[in-house]
Amino acid sequence: MKSAVVILAMLVATTALAATEKSAAHHATKGGKPYFEATDTLRTQATVLSINQKTRHASLRTESGDTVKVEAGPEAKNFNQVKKGDVVKITYTEKLTIHIEPSGAAGTSTESTSGSAKAGEKPTASAKAKTTYKATITAIDKDKGTVTLQGSSGDQFEVTPMHPENLDKVKVGDLVVFTYSQAIAASVEKVAANK
Questions:
Q1: Contact (CB, 8 A) for 48 and 62
Q2: Which of 45, 49, 55, 117 could lock onto 121 through a cystine, CB 3.0 to 4.6 A?
C-alpha cells in the first residue's frame, strides 16, 4: 500500500505541476518510449524588518506586504550577520520526470543533500531531495486505455495515461520510473544604501 501512496503523490505532483501557470511541462518520447517532464520554480523575497540576535527571531515583510515572524535554528550559520533592511531571497524548484526502462526490479530510492554558508559569509542555505519510484507494467488494457503497475511491495494499481497512444510504445515487464525532486535555496543579501 505504501508504494501506491508514493505513486499517487507523484501523480498528484504531475497534475499540479502541469496545471501551474509558471511551470513547464514537456511530453515527448526518448528512445521511442514515452517521456514526461514538468518543472515549477517559485522565487520570492522578503525584507528584514527587525531582528533579535539573542533569541534568533526575525520579522520579515514579504513582497505582498505581509509580515512574517521566523525563528532561525542552530543550523542557520552566520545569523549574526543578518541586519535590518537585508533581503532574504528564496528559490524553490520541483521537478517530476516519468520515463520507461526495460524490465528490471521495481523499487524506491531517496537521496538528499544540503549546504550552508562558510564562516564569515552572509547566510545561505540549500537543500535538495530526490525520490525515484520504479513500478513494473503487469498489464495493458488498450480497450480501457489503462496500464496496471506493480511496486516492489507487490501492490498493484491501475493508471490511465494522459496520451493513450503511448500504450503502443510500452510492453508488459517494462518499468515506469517516476523521479520527483525538490530543491530550495535561500540567501541573505545586503541592500545598497540609497544615495
A1: no
A2: 117
